[in-house]
């Protein structure tokens, strides 16, 4: 074996490791971008999370991101989104049509009938939006 063949093999190994590191960096960046957009709609928090990975590398930035990221559904309380016909599930945070009574993602109940007027409204509401009767499930 000659010195040149050892050097060529070393170069191939170094190129492979650098390529693997770049792949892991890009994959981490894409994963964090998708994960944070699912967890919050705050642009500032999304930008901060992505910049953690860009500037601190996945080796340092990814563990920090995992420690500070908000839980799923924090910004998506079960409320009707203004100007749309969707409601967020209080259990999983996924958006559903306001016509649905159960979440299509986790089968959690989205609406319940009012004890007074019998109209369906979101379970997370403290009061019925139609007759102002208190939501007995929240008070208990």
Question: Mind explaining what this structure looks like?
Answer:
It is built from three helices and four strands. It is mainly alpha-helical. The strands form two sheets. Strands 1-2 form a two-stranded antiparallel ribbon. Strands 3-4 form a two-stranded antiparallel ribbon. Strand 3 (111-113) and strand 4 form a beta hairpin. The longest helix has 37 residues, at 3-39. The radius of gyration is 24 Å and the shape is rod-shaped.
Spatial order of the strands forming the largest sheet: 1-2
Oligomer: single chain
Give the helix proportion (percent range).
40-55%
Please outline the major beta sheet. Answer: 2 strands, antiparallel
Based on Cα principal axes, name the global outline: rod-shaped
Share of β-strand residues: 5-15%
Number of domains: 2
Spans where pLDDT lies below 50 across 5 or more residues: 74-82
Question: How far is the first residue's CA from the last residue's CA?
Answer: 80 Å
Overall structural class, as computed from helix and strand content, comes to mainly alpha
The helix/strand series, from N terminus to C terminus, equals HHEEEEH
Question: Which descriptors apply to this entry?
Answer:
single chain, 140 residues, mainly alpha, two-stranded antiparallel sheet, rod-shaped
Q: Would you kindly provide a brief summary of this structure?
A:
This protein is mainly α and 140 residues long.
